[in-house]
Amino acid sequence: MSIATALVDTEETEQAEAALPFWLVNVPRSEWPEKCPDFLINVSDRDRAILGTPDSQFRRLSWKEVQECIRTKRIDGFRRLPSDLRRYLAFNAKVKEDYGSVNNYIIQKMLQWTDQEPKDADAFNNPDTVDLRILYNHWPYGIDIKIIHLVVWTKFDLDDDPATGELTAPMRQKIDDFVERKFRSRVPENNVIWFRNWKSLKSIQGIEHFHVMLHDPDMDFVREVTNGDIPTSQRVIA
Question: What's the pTM?
Answer without folding.
Answer: 0.88
